[in-house]
Write a structure and sequence with these properties.
Mean pLDDT: 95
CATH superfamily of the largest domain: NAD(P)-binding Rossmann-like Domain
Structural class: alpha/beta
Shape: globular
Number of helices: 10
Number of domains: 2
CATH class of the largest domain: Alpha Beta
Helix content: 40-55%
CATH architecture of the largest domain: 3-Layer(aba) Sandwich
Strand order of the largest sheet: 1-11-8-7-5-6
Strand content: 15-25%
Order of helices and strands: EHEHEHEHHHEHEHEEEEHEH
Length: about 290
């Protein structure tokens, strides 16, 4: 069993990006600029956005953090999005999800200029991805593809079962795994809460991408020997032995599944760091498009 080390792999990619930024600036290009909009004080979101700011510093990007009150109106948030759309110095930006319940997330995503949508959530970018056209890929699925690529994991002709159909992870991951490209060329089964024979499908899977948000949902008796497991889940579970008061648990019961897996991502330290570095890759792509 080999651990798919997202922390190590993402560091390698950050080092590569830092070198590319130096080259870009030397050639007269602008320093890539990533902005993040944070609404409210959700603990996980604050931690994640702060990490993104540190990532920008490390690779030589300029970063801007726009902090907004949880009580901000939808109209006011859309005005902030419009400002970033019009700011020529900002190459790409994200609006950190989830948003407060009184705000329509889809309306906010739709308001982002597709050319600056480095999260890859805008319908235009998702459509281009589905057609295998150049675009910003959603960060988590892109990170998964990079992990498979960097570890030279064979995907062609394999049966890939994706658990979860969110537009952020499950659906785009299923499209990318099925495209005529490496990583890809897999036979993909997209499963969800209404799938009646999930255990049977998982038992047949060569590759499992678990993205449903239920800790320890997939257990050792549900997978076959040699399976490749990508665990996207990051659920906070109370743990009084930890300084933070919680620990992160994946969708996969690691101890049992890892005994059968040929490759598996840990939680934390697997897909999470790859998601963050994918955002940097998209921002660099946005900056290069202006040259």
């Amino acid at each position: 069993m080999i651990i798919l080390d997202g922390k190590k792999t993402s560091q390698e990619i950050r080092n590569e990006i830092a070198e590319e930024v130096k080259t870009l600036v030397k050639k007269g290009g602008k320093t890539p600029h990533l902005a993040a909009v944070l609404v409210g004080n959700n603990g996980a979101s604050v931690t994640y956005v702060n990490a993104k700011v540190k990532d920008c510093e490390e690779v030589g990007f300029k970063s801007t953090l726009v902090k907004l009150s949880e009580t901000i109106s939808e109209k006011e948030l859309l005005e902030e999005v419009d400002k970033l759309n019009k700011d020529e110095d900002v190459d790409g930006f994200i609006v950190q999800l989830p948003l407060p319940k009184h705000i329509d997330e889809q309306k906010v995503i739709m308001a982002i200029d597709p050319a600056k949508d480095v999260d890859g959530f805008h319908p235009q970018n998702l459509g281009r991805m589905a057609l295998n056209l150049p675009t910003y890929l959603p960060a988590t699925p892109m990170g998964i593809m990079d992990l498979l690529d960097r570890y030279n994991i064979e995907t062609g002709g394999k049966h890939c079962v994706v658990v979860g159909r969110s537009h952020i992870v499950g659906l785009p991951a299923s499209i990318l795994m099925g495209r005529n490209h490496y990583p890809g060329n897999a036979t993909v089964t997209l499963t969800h809460s209404r799938t009646t024979n999930l255990k049977e499908l998982l038992k047949d899977a060569d590759i499992i991408i678990a993205a449903l948000g239920k800790p320890d949902f997939i257990t050792g008796d549900m997978v076959k020997d040699g399976v490749v497991v990508i665990d996207v889940g990051t659920t906070r579970v109370v743990d009084k032995t930890k300084k933070s008061g919680y620990k992160l648990k994946g969708d996969v019961e690691f101890e049992g599944v890892s005994k059968k897996a040929s490759y598996i991502t840990p939680v934390p330290g697997g897909v999470g760091p790859m998601t963050r570095v994918s955002l940097l890759k998209n921002t660099l792509m946005a900056a290069r498009s202006k040259m």
